[in-house]
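TODO from last week: model aspartate carbamoyltransferase.
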Amino acid sequence: QGAAQYSADAIEIPVLNAGDGAGNHPTQTLLDLFTIREAHGTLEGLNVVLVGDLRYGRTVHSLSHALVRFGATLTLVSPDSLRMPSEIVSDLTTGGAEVTETADLAGTIAEADVIYMTRIQKERFPDEDEYTKVAGIYMLTASDLAGAKKSMIIMHPLPRVNEIHPSVDSTHHARYFQQAFNGVVARMALLCDCLGVKVPKKVK
């Protein structure tokens, strides 16, 4: 954690942070923003629910900072032991963002434009008993989505464990497989930009 920033401070060539421990994951944020815009046609003013391991989940650390730049309303859903780090919440709210913290996933579904699920990361827990207390605490099923907006999308940085039931995969809300594909093209574009490679607007 922090290695990418340390490297960037020490050298004068581009450093791409593809995830630094439990810190941040800015390239994931690029593909996440692309996926959201692809689905909704905009990034402005959306209700976004971030769910699961918000303490160690580097994807949500980066994504939350990006979303509030577009006026997103954030709802942070996690057990108490895995809440978003207080310094991140402070950064978001100091900038004027509307942020709500809760442990109740079910109560957030109806108003959500995006539900961003994350796995509980067993490898981050020094004590397996602590992991057992929260493992499987959230599982989204197809039946849970009955009251959701038709346009609502479900995302996940993958890999998943059991936080999204397979019944969700065949619903029109599921966007995580397309999201994974978008990761390829987003990172290709980033590499091209850093290397000065010009790509035609229309590629056969």
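Done. Residues 24-192 form a domain with the Rossmann fold fold (CATH 3.40.50.1370).
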